[in-house]
Amino acid sequence: MRKFKAQCQTCGRWFYTRGTCRHCGEFVCPRCWSPELHGYFRGRNRPPFREPIGHQRNLPWKKAFGVLAVLVLIIVLGAGFYYGLTQQSSTASLQTTSQTTPTTLESTSTSTTCSNGFWSWLFGKCSTNWLVDNPSFQNGSTKIDYPPDYSTLVNFTLQLINNDRASAGLSPVSLSTVPSGQQHSDSMAYFGYFSHWDVQGYKPYMRYTLLGGEGYVAENAGLDYCTDSSPSATLITPTSCNVQTIENGITNSEWGMMNNDQVCCNNGHRDNILNPLHNRVSIGIAYNTSTNTLYFVEDFEDSYVNSASLQFSGGVVTFQGSTQQNLAGWVGDSSGAAIEIYYDPTPTNISVNEVPQGAYDLGTQIATVLAPCPAGYICESGSNLIYAQTWQQNSGNFQIVFAISGLESTYGNGVYTLYLWPAGESEPITGLSIFVMGG
Q1: What is the arrangement of strands in the sheet containing 316-323, beginning at the earlier edge strand?
Q2: N or C: which end of the chain has fewer CB within 10 A?
């Protein structure tokens, strides 16, 4: 601040100063200033000063501003801590909801899993980088991320599927508790590829088994965009991803599978949606906000086996569980049911530029397991026929025990997938994989 001319209120001298004394509030010249009356100061030999009226610093305002800033900081940090607690609770709530309400997924605002969640919550906008965890399987487990508004998007998709099934006179499917659809959508979005195979070489039924599936799975996968364009549009124009544009992309993908599937896929996707045996679906929705690309998965299930247990030890497989009561006759030892065994070589990592395209197969069929040959009968023999040691079925509960040590000797390490075909049905009700990785 510039000096101005003032009169000393002690001796009457005129002198140049920057303001009044901080201690007494008067104009005091250097000759009259003393530390006893006006306090000590540092620096050059001149008294401390106050700024004159009209130029005085608003020190009380500064203090108030500082206090306010500290209060705001405390509130923000406290809110962040609270958000962290509620976010952990919401994740548990999401998982519980998907298990206890299989028909639809409850819509809750706490289903958001943004990587920058607190700031998204604070400013009312979700972080664009919601997919933060590598979804690859490690020792049989994986981390699955769910996009913002996941429950809203999944319920929307489930309604589309069931509308298509209702138009064909079919029963609705319910939402699966197996997260195979979301895991694969995450993988495609995370690594930037599109295929039924993933970058670890796993096929849909392998991922389904690793994630706890007990039935048979058949996968639809779609690649689309977040868009404002309708399915009838000649050109689909990508736009930024939000709930509405994502739902538009899902609608376009579902419409294409239902109404424009003959050219690319011989109506395989449509047949999958309209398969009367399917009773559940695992839905996956992921997207890349940089490219506005939408990755969409429908893992349809034939879920008729409960509490299935598949054990493998010493070359012997023990498969047991229960079927729905009205289907108990499907797997009886005299019903004509069978287990087909398919083989895949040990999966290996695949670069995103080399993942296979097109429809996937079930591997190579290498054997069929039948109920034990009845005493006194001469049953067909062959290297690809295995007669079970035990094949019991009672009131819907079943236990099937058979050896595959001969197959291990022939084919070695790899993935052996078991398909239980009920009598008289057009497709299996299980497709469970055994990963043989021994020496």
Answers
A1: 305-313, 316-323, 397-403, 390-394
A2: C
